[in-house]
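Let's inspect one such protein example.
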Amino acid sequence: MRLPPLKAIRAFEAVYRHGSILGAAAELGVVRGAVRQQISILENYFGEKLFERDGRKLAATAKATEFAEASNAALVLLERAAADFVGREQRRVRLGVPSAFAIWWLMPRLANMQSALDGVDVDIVPMSIVEPLSLHPELDAVIMGGEYRPAAGVTAVKFMEDEFGPVAMPDLAARIADNPARMVESTALVSRSAPTLWQEWFAESGTQAVIFRRKQEFEDLLLALGAARSGVGVVLAPRAAIEDDLQRNVLAAPYGFVRRPAGYSLSCRNADAKRPAFIALRDWLRRSDVSKQ
């Protein structure tokens, strides 16, 4: 089968990630008309439209999304193969990490990680919104929680269990402890990076869902936790994120925690999974647990 032009695939994959012709043109260093031309070439090749207008953003169709993910994996594979061909060994890993996870889990272990990964440089890139690796060609790997879904060309390795539950200041936690229905009078603190977390907790804990009378949204979990510490309301949090707060009686968990089978995973492209730098990072993550500092 004759393959589509590589230049058209690159333009298409860039538009998919940026959601715009302008963003793709800026990345590729060409004018917008050149990108439109390449998209037109690919649409003529397949005989159908690849994008639909979603407000101000271009959204790929369902079939085009699958092709975009495969294209991203193939382009990265070519890039890595070219690096191997010229003998350039990759000893630096750009690691995307959820901002909250970076603060409460990874940074306290940074010295240990640097010592264990002697010779491997890990650039930690905080992510307020965790997105699949296919949308971030500038990253080599990402750490993802329960939101991880398998993707073409990506290897994911689970390295830590996950527990989560509602937490609040001790006086508020005491008022609602004997009956979750009493949370209706509290303010639900929600992180925009995980907007469905409350629904997931009700379902996974077997608790009757509560329709909160008040809800306050924050850009990420760090801000939502800060609001909970000041007494604003109740937030859902990973246990590891607030273990110190629990021990110091700053926050309390009125209903305990529910274990999430998905846990936390390190995702990297298949082409990188067997490289020494990634194996070293993977093994260190597997050896580390929430009790190690």
Observations:
- Strands lie at 51-54, 57-60, 92-98, 121-127, 141-144, 154-167, 187-191, 214-218, 234-238, 258-269.
